[in-house]
From TrEMBL:
Stored PROSITE patterns: GLUTATHIONE_PEROXID_2, GLUTATHIONE_PEROXID_3, THIOREDOXIN_2
Record bears the keyword Oxidoreductase: yes
InterPro entries in the cross-refs: Glutathione_peroxidase, GPX_CS, Thioredoxin-like_sf, Thioredoxin_domain
MF-aspect GO terms: peroxidase activity
Name recorded for this polypeptide: Glutathione peroxidase
Organism per entry: Pseudoalteromonas qingdaonensis
Stretches of the chain forming a coiled coil according to its record: none
Amino acid sequence: MDSIYHFNATLIDGQPYSFKQLQGRVVLIVNTASSCNFTHQYGALERVYQDYKNQGLVILGFPCNQFGRHEIADNATIKHFCENTFNVSFPLFSKVMVNGPDAHPLFNYLKEHTRGIAQNRAIKWNFTKFLINSQGQLVNRYAPRTKPDTLRSVIESQLDEISPIQLAKV
């Protein structure tokens, strides 16, 4: 279990999604919410995605209602909001739990391999970000206050590690 490739999740429209299809790509995983102080980051995430998707970046958004009840809507409403308000085109998933006994296994894996605020493993708020390299391994965890644009250089450095053979498959 040294990569994210063995995980599966459900897209916001109910379709299954295998993380195996992410092999060779750089991935930014974000737990999101539609009505919090960081919701504007959807727009910044979409800009970063548009700028780097052809070089091998994928952003994955996981709506979560565990923090401040900032994601009380159903999946269809979340999808509509994200697409119409921020033109989100990166994959969005069905709502998940990121902490506790019902946490999605992906987030348990991410928390096991990194620490956040005050060296705590638990996710503390919406828009916590996890950067994954092209081998499916966790590079770093970023706090909700970390603006997506400030991650451009670290994303670029990870994209530079993608081999031409991997990039051809992307």
